[in-house]
Amino acid sequence: MPGASLTLKPALDAIGKAIDQRFDRLLPVPEDSRARLFEAMRHAAIGGGKRMRPLLVVAACDLFHVDRERALRVAMAIECIHVYSLIHDDLPCMDDDDMRRGKPTVHKAFDEATAVLAGDSLHDLAYDILADAATHEDPFVRLELIQALSAASGPMGMAGGQMMDLVAGDALYDLGAVTRLQQLKTGALIGFCLEAGGIMGGIADGQRTPLRGYARDLGLAFQIADDLLDVEGTEAAAGKALRKDEEAGKATFVSLLGLERARTQAQMLIDQAILHLASFGQEADLLRAIARFAIERDR
Amino acid sequence: MPGASLTLKPALDAIGKAIDQRFDRLLPVPEDSRARLFEAMRHAAIGGGKRMRPLLVVAACDLFHVDRERALRVAMAIECIHVYSLIHDDLPCMDDDDMRRGKPTVHKAFDEATAVLAGDSLHDLAYDILADAATHEDPFVRLELIQALSAASGPMGMAGGQMMDLVAGDALYDLGAVTRLQQLKTGALIGFCLEAGGIMGGIADGQRTPLRGYARDLGLAFQIADDLLDVEGTEAAAGKALRKDEEAGKATFVSLLGLERARTQAQMLIDQAILHLASFGQEADLLRAIARFAIERDR
User: Fold this and answer.
1) How many independent structural domains does chain A possess?
2) A-B Cβ pairs (cutoff 8 Å, strict)
């Protein structure tokens, strides 16, 4: 389906612009020695990335006709968490990456200590945005979002997945273990994006099964596509170093399944993700377009 | 006043035990490769430190007869933030410390990447505790606590102060600048501890002036005492490396004021802190005892 990414292009452009504008407003540089910290946060947060997670929040909110402004506030919170995790992930003691989103990583453009603090600060900012009374969100909605975010981001979610990934260097992971690792490392935050739509849409916990099914399948397809990109892509297009997993001898979906089966598996997951949306009409079109886009990025 | 720390001893013992028990319950080690992350969190969080910040929350709650169990939940959140900040502060790229609270720092006992993730995870845990519906706290109270915490911990608070401290290596700070730096780096979290008492006690924003005055004076006295300890103390008693500021050529209250004037200044600030409590009776005795204890620690 070569047209799918074309369909998504205006939505990606719009969300990119909206997120950049909001970060610019949210991070004015103070006139004292904290300036360096804010400059580092801006370097990481503004002008880069596909903003897939913010777009997922907006698309999930579309399902329940949640106002775009409300969706964008939560989208900012999840992007703060994503950017913080990238900054810390890129540190020399973690993945040791020099480039990210086509720019030097924060510890390269600034220094390691500033990178640690910039990540920590964006981490706080995410919760600050969700708690903010200015959201006019019902207080129970705000609290449920905060709890869902801490579960997705913390030691049983994303951070736990990163720990598994670190330990993976010494262990031999099979397909089940790699799936579990990725469901935490990248899947937990993607799960939050969909869950947020349900929470803001006032959908009861028991009614969120299609959202969770979509998120799970999309998250895995997304990761397989990332693994494929790591093998087949160019560093210029990806904006970061590639083929690091292979060098480190880490098990990935591609190393475990082979190129051909990995591709088939990703396509199957995307078909499945879209099937979870069967009970929705046009209001799910953006989620469907995102799913198709997930496996045809930047090749 | 040699009797002051004796008065505080039972309270310090009780809070230490309560916090340890709660961390033990809160951080069960999972049976997968996330285990290492939880072990690192437990290493940092359990069995160490004077638990001054939790004790301050409890003491501030005493002022308004807030139930001890409610106070302890918020005390756990602030201790999570404090411990996360110590883990990241101790990293080689930050203060590069090998010992903390008489034990190897997390990156020494584990590794740097695990230390980054353990800090990040405790950071999430703090917000999770405050948002938790199980607190039975009014939702507006929970949200106000979360916003106060993110302001105290984030880039305009503690993290901003740490940035100032990093930049200080290259700049010549005078007394005003060092005061401002410390009011953010250590003062912001101390301010939160007192503010939390006011929030949970249902005290209107405009009525919290004595709490803020006490916190500001105590925070500075605490830091001067720390600077004095850094010059006069023993590493065995402090449980960490000392005299690092002097080696780094950093301006401190002691280097700027001299020993004698620093001591007088700390005493004056403590007298002032206690004066802010003049309108309270016995219910402020714990806060008074903490203030006196602040300048006679571990010599």
Assistant:
1) 1
2) 163
